[in-house]
Design brief:
The chain has 14 helices and eight strands. By secondary structure, the protein is an alpha/beta fold.
Amino acid sequence: MNKLDQLREMTTVVADTGDLAAIKEYQPQDATTNPSLLLKVAQDADYASFMDDSITAASDKNDVEDVADIFGVKIGCEILKIIPGRVSTEVDARLSFDKDATISKARKLIDLYAQHGVHKDRVLIKIASTWEGIQAAKQLQTEGINCNLTLLFGFAQAVACAEAKVFLISPFVGRILDWYKANGEQQSFEPKQDPGVISVTKIYNYYKQHGYNTIVMGASFRNSGEIEALAGCDYLTIGPNFLEELRNDNSNLVQELNANNTGESQEKLTLDEKAFRWMMNNDAMATEKLAQGIRGFAVDQDKLLDLFSART
């Protein structure tokens, strides 16, 4: 078997793309989108009809934020026609520090899916892993709305998400690596010494040791070595370029993560808001990458809204 097929035997493979053709080709279990991926789709002439249909479906065609929500759900519905599992749809990054607005937006997205006959069990609402986002997800989970906590870089975020009983977290492997390369002398890392791989491995082992049901989904890869070093992780969300690379490699793939072998015991933590913020404050990498990620998604959300404004 090629490495992609081997990986599927030990990890749930998720497609990190909004491109329908790529999803059809690689047949992942789940798929995940974000503002940057939706912007890329919206800029593709092949998806112009989805944009026009979204404008038509809006009660106020000049309400581009509503149009963008409809567009994201329409793409999600098309993805769900292809995959057997769930699709992740992201809450506007500009709401990352507003718990109530995040909850309201999540409910709206779930309602839009319901209008297309899609049950909430097939949708994950993506929310940035701020304190406010995590608390919003805690509330949504009690309503049966499953959440994917994204832009997760630090251990404090992982602990708080587990305590909130969120459905899934997306620690960003490659962006962690980016920070260490930008802020240190070392520019090259072997996969198992990659800071992002080390971070996700620690989180995975912590969750298994303490019996948390929250799924760990490694994300944001810079090379296939990172993916292979996390083989056995609950989920991995992988872009089409690395899916292709794995599919073309017929060498042996070793399972690196195993719930029955989680290494040295880690002390269980419980974080209130003050402890969370202090732990984040002491983690420069997590603080900087979270802020940068939110800004980046907000910029792409604004660009997406501008595209719709130009069509109305």
